[in-house]
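Lab manual, section 2.4: Encoding a predicted structure.

Procedure: take the sequence of the chain (194 residues), apply the prediction step described in section 2.3, and record the output as structure tokens. A sample record is shown.
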Amino acid sequence: MAEDKMYMFRPTSRDLRIEYPELANINEFSELKTKELKFVWFYANRTSPYYTAKGGDRNKILGCIRNSFGNSYKEDDPAEYSKYLRGNFPPKIREAIERMERFNPTARARAKIAIETVFSNLEQSMFMDEEMEAKMKEDIELRKKYVELSIKIADNMQNVVAQMEEGFGIRASGSFDRGDKGPTIMDMLHMEDE
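Recorded output:
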């Protein structure tokens, strides 16, 4: 069984700010067009298949352009295409690249695992075995504590579920549609944070 690859804010067919509402609240991303933000992801996200320029910077930029702006970008806007190809990005793109590079996939993967553990622990604390049920029938103080605990868990469950649903931008996927692979969750947990 192949291990799923892990991506941080992995692009889909939707705008990244819709797919990951956290990104909509970041100033450096708010003014970008959908394709510009996608370019920033491919260029600067540590889980992007293009983050490490294996074939050199030019090939990295070409791959990022192709996957964000499309193959016709060269003909649609030749002047801008030429600037991008030289690494001469507009200031708003440079600022967004710097911000995207600050996201830490290792910390986010660990936070995702931690919040799932918290949810599991909250859920397990609500279940009683037969011995505990018998004790509660005889001890009113124990019943009161259980009710208090239940109320606290219910109050916190919504926040925990919301954090789980957002997933800290971490999502598993077998691959990108064109076959590129990203790091596994274990790779991310073992990465040296730069």
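Check your result against the sample. Residues 140-166 form the longest helix (27 residues).
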